[in-house]
Design brief:
This protein is α/β, with parallel strands linked by helices and 338 residues long. Helix content is 37%, strand content 23%. Strands 7, 9, 10, 11, 12, 13 and 15 form a 7-stranded mixed sheet that branches. α4 packs parallel to α5. It binds L-homoserine. L-homoserine (HSE) binds next to α7.
């Protein structure tokens, strides 16, 4: 029996428990043993949840726990809890892009010192297996450009606005579907996309880009009229995160995307990420960028990798990085053109 714990029984945490239960036979085949969620940590009461605890020390002091899934979001107390787990040799798998952006390098170094791992596949692109692919299959490529629809909530809102919904109603639907952040300003003001493009830029460049370095505009100023005007020109409006390695520029902005562009048909909660590698050329990743089970599936993929490599550190691309230098973006347009 391989024991894990979940920190935070929100949308993603609940999804992790469900994925482990529903795909247990498949997981067992890979690992040769059953995976059990021994503890779920949350300060709230959940009648009927038997393995609920509210003290992190119960988890980190239990030598049976091999991996924790940090699905709390935010920095506090997620940073403390992650650090504590790693210091006890317990690997941490997270969907928390805010923490990965702010403290991922430090947590990765703690993991390396303690022969365990800090993995964060679910932090970018929801269920899309992009980070592992970049780390492994594309490790030898020189990636010069990343252009991505990285926020499911914004893409959902913009898609609904195309068919007549107003902004607030579409945002409420995204919240009801469990796509939006606890504070949806992080979605609609572009900060969530900024964190994700900073993580991607860091992984492909080997330099630490942080969220504060991203020139960032969200979708709050986009009107239905803007969308109708775009359609007259055979285009639509998408919130894109963009990294240009050659110019060392990183930004988040609404863009006009023409109907012949690969990202034009990426709609609803889907994310699409275009990567340009020097040997590979263009490659596009497409899948659900938010939501309970897709995001939880990505967390569970990390859990399996950690359990397969128990007692070893899995390098994650955040170790020993120098800070990146960014060239400023001097223009400020409400909607940019690709
Ligand atoms: N709020 C995020 C989104 C969740 O809508 O994409 C997934 O990171």
């Amino acid at each position: 029996m391989l024991n894990i714990a979940i920190l935070g029984l929100g949308t993603v945490g609940g999804g992790v428990a469900e994925v482990v239960e529903k795909n247990q036979a498949k997981i067992q085949k890979i690992l040769g043993q059953e995976v059990r969620v021994k503890y779920i940590l949350d300060i709230r009461e959940f009648p009927g949840v038997k393995n609920l605890v509210n003290d992190i020390n119960v988890i980190v002091n239990d030598p049976e726990v091999k991996v924790v899934c940090e699905t709390m979001g935010g920095k506090k107390p997620a940073y403390e809890y992650s650090r504590l787990a790693l210091e006890h040799g317990i690997s941490v798998c997270t969907s928390n892009k805010e923490l990965v952006d702010a403290c991922g390098c430090e947590l990765s170094e703690i993991a390396a010192r303690n022969n365990c791992s800090y993995l964060f596949e679910a932090s970018v692109g929801g269920g899309i297996p992009i980070l592992r692919t970049l780390r492994e299959a594309c490790a030898h490529e020189k990636i010069s450009r990343i252009t991505g629809i990285l926020n499911g909530t914004c893409n959902y809102i913009l898609t609904k606005m195309r068919s007549g919904s107003d902004f607030q109603a579409a945002l409420r639907e995204a919240q009801d579907n469990g796509f939006a952040e606890r504070n949806p300003a992080a979605d609609v003001e572009g900060h969530d996309t900024a964190r994700k493009i900073a993580i991607l830029a860091t992984l492909v460049s080997g330099k630490k880009f942080s969220y504060e370095q991203v020139h960032c505009n969200g979708i709050t100023q986009i009107t239905q009229q803007d969308i109708l005007d775009a359609e007259k020109n055979h285009a639509t409006i998408k919130l894109l995160g963009m990294f240009d390695a050659e110019k060392s520029q990183i930004l988040v902005s609404p863009f006009f995307v023409k109907s012949d562009h690969a990202l034009y048909n990426v709609n609803d909660v889907f994310n699409g990420i275009l990567i340009h590698g020097n040997m590979l050329g263009d490659v596009m990743f497409y899948g659900k960028g938010a939501g309970k089970l897709p995001t939880a599936s990505a967390v569970v993929s990390d859990v399996i990798e950690c359990l397969k490599n128990f007692g070893k550190n899995i390098p994650n691309g955040l170790e020993n990085l120098q800070p990146a230098e960014v060239s400023p973006i001097t223009t400020d347009e409400k909607i940019r053109s690709l």
